[in-house]
Structures are given as C-alpha cells and as structure tokens.
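Lab manual, section 2.4: Encoding a predicted structure.

Procedure: take the sequence of the chain (263 residues), apply the prediction step described in section 2.3, and record the output as structure tokens. A sample record is shown.
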Amino acid sequence: MSEMAHPADSLVIAGHTFRSRLFIGTGKYPSFEVMKACHEASGAELVTVAVRRLDLGAKGEASMMHWIDTSRMKLLPNTALCYTAEDAVRTCRLAEELGMSKWVKLEVLGDERTLFPDVEETVKAARILVKEGFTVLPYTSDDPITARKLEDVGCAAVMPLAAPIGSGLGIRNPHNLRLIRETVKVPVIVDAGVGTASDAAIAMELGCDGVLMNTAIAGAKEPARMARAMKQAVEAGRDAFLAGRIPRKAYGAASSPLTGLVD
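Recorded output:
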C-alpha cells in the first residue's frame, strides 16, 4: 500500500501487520537469483514455500531457504501437492518441526487436472490445524458459503481462487469475490489465476485485501519487472477501491458544468 496516500491503511492478519498487500511464491523461477530479485522488486513481506518441494538435504546456496530474506519476509509454508486432510495436516506439522512457521497456507487439492480445491477436506484440515495452534490461510474456491465455514472454524483469512492455479486467466468471477468480501470479516486474499498487473488491480478494486501470486511473476519474460508491475498494480487497485469509483451509466455525462456557458 502506498504509505504517502494512506499511511494507516495496513493489512492485519492474526495480529501481524503487513504494509504490502502483495504476497509472493518461490516456485517455477529460472534460478534462485531471479527469485530473490523478484522478491525484492515486489516489496512483498510474506513468502509462501511448498514444504513438499523443499530439498531438505541442500546446504548453503544450493538451498532455496538461503535465498529468502526472512529478516524482511514472513514465511508461509504451504501444503501444495496434498490431496487429503491427513496429508495436509502432516505437512504442516513437518513445517513446524523444521522451524519454518506456525503460519501455514493450507492447500488440499481435489483434482490433478484443474487443481481446484477439495473444500470438504480443506475445512476438515483447517479445523484440526486451528485446534493445534496454527494460523491457517486456506486456498479455497470462490464460494462464499465455504469461505464462511473456513472463517467459522478459525481461519485467519480466506484465499479464494481467481482462476485455476497457474492458468493466468485472471478474475473469472468478480461477483463471487464481492460476495465473499461481504460474507466474511477476515481478510480476503485472492490466490491463483492472476496473469498480469491488470488482474491484480481488479482484485484490489473489488475490495479484496491482498493478492498472492507466483506463476504470473516467475513465468514472465522479465520476472523482476513483472514483480515491480504487480507491486504497483496492487497499490493502485487498493487506492482506487478506497477512493470510490464513479457509478456506471448507460449514457454519457458532460464533465464540464452546463450552466454559465458563453453564447
């Protein structure tokens, strides 16, 4: 968020304050060096890491964790590649044992082709993890009823998809995102499907509290430049939402006064 425009407009999740509303990932980058450059350009203060993809035997520069600035960015281990609540819970416990974080991005997938979430298993896993003291940020469908159930079991935020993971299709159902924002009191973070900066801006203009992305940056021709663009888009979208857009009209309306005209 632009501190000059709205210095008090920070995002608070489970008592933790974020100045940036852009969250970022660690997968699919051509190198760790590029990943680090993107993290810096994005200004993100939260980074998600797939626990199951970590090479636990790697040391020094060969380890992904070596390239993540944990003094500036909060770690969010995720349960990517989990298809049952049991696997997801086990993965979160492993992340805790590794000393990564008690904050977790919960992903329980229901289908290998679409990568859509299994919402029943997600709610089941969330209930267990919250009881064990985890701060849970669940990836979910764009369904306000599921979002409410996740809030009810104690999730610190809800993270509905904009489109399938890695698809770059953008915001496919803006109406549902608005409904989710109206339904829950916890922060709403758009997760998955963003393809370019305008998608991120639209998500923020809809009133969402933040955007999490990975492929849109990592897969760009110039990843660090795209990371910078996404940072600016999230800030601009948030400012536009707070400013309040003009109503849509069926016909034109003059922007200059119609009285006092010179004959």
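Check your result against the sample. DSSP finds eight helices and ten strands in the chain.
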